[in-house]
Amino acid sequence: MTSRSAPLPPPAHLPPVDLTARLAGRARRMTASAIREILKITQQPDVISFAGGLPAPELFPLEDVRRAADAVLTRYGPAALQYSTTEGHLPLREWIAARDGIRPANVQIVTGSQQGLDLLGKILIDEGDVVLVEAPTYLGALQSFQPYGPRYVELPTDEHGIDTDALEEVLRATPAKLLYAIPNFQNPTGRTLSLERRRRLLELTAQYGVLVIEDDPYGQLRFTGEELPSLYQLGLELAGGPEQSHVIYSSSFSKTLVPGLRDAWVQAAQPIIEKLIQAKQGADLHTPTLNQMIITELVGDVLPRQIETVKKAYGERAQDMVARLREHFPAGVSFTTPEGGMFLWVTVPESIDTVPLLAQAVARKVAFVPGSPFYALGGGHNTMRLSYSSATPEQIDTGIRALGETIRGALG
């Protein structure tokens, strides 16, 4: 006969734990991405969204990726699905390094450029360090750096990018640790830093001992104008090699090939790379092996063709959007004309706040990103970012017309 144990007594009441109070100070400094929150309200199928900076999915080289995945699995077998080195797949690092004449040891593969920014913040920023950023700048960088407690100082910008005269004044008065910049087709404005200012920026930051993080996800997507050397390339020339350069370069395959594989990289001097390796080991050990191998299979022939395809499409869409802005927006509204990338920047009269304007626009079935989240220290209430990368000509015409009507309504 099987004996049955006596029923357990009910558990004692546990006192509540204040979980928020147990969070680290850096966790309390974290905020949700304003863009991701906005995207939640713009996902209605009948809303034309110029909000998300999304690569055009109809341009993804689906069959090429399928072929590459099959070739990788055939060639490497189980090794393609195994753990790998933190530094990244060597053939991919060799390909990246060869473009700038550096060694693979100066290249670290990361899981999307966003991880690269987070890891750079982790190894470079101490509480209270001064970080110089453009006004406005990429919201994702602010979000990555914020938990490490930087003190932001904004640099004014114009149609030629960062005002280097203003940069010099700031550096004379402020001991800065880092300067973060997007020289090519900047997110959110679409502006490009001129060659003269690139050289001056490097001279000033070297003189004052300031590290430069160059974020360049869009640099290969130029559809008009003259190709310019990266800050990293200029830094190599001025410094004489990667170990002497104070520029850290970040780029990605997300905008040129496909975003879903989450492959990006950082180029820097060995002391930076060594600490990135250690930080990445604590984050995710390594970027997925299979993804890196697939990218390596594609860079030789598919990537160049894909870049040309994307440049042509985005160039046509940007031209179309600029034409519709001129046609449908009221007087008093200004906007940038990008030479590449995925975005342009709109400034409306001071009397309009684009945060409440967004709700009015969504009511007219069109969406954008208000500009204020792109300012580290506040401001930009009368600005907005528009993305043309994933919009059809019909959507651009209908959406910009509706947005122009929304702005006219706000002006009264």
From TrEMBL:
Q: Which gene encodes it?
A: lysN
Q: Which UniProt keywords apply?
A: Aminotransferase, Pyridoxal phosphate, Transferase
Tell me where on the tree of life, at the top rank, the source sits: Bacteria
Domain Aminotransferase class I/classII large, first and last residues per copy: 59-403
Task: Answer whether the UniProt record assigns the keyword Transferase to this protein.
Answer: yes
Q: What is this protein called?
A: 2-aminoadipate transaminase
Q: Which cofactor does it need?
A: pyridoxal 5'-phosphate
Among Pfam families, the record links this protein to:
Aminotran_1_2 (PF00155)
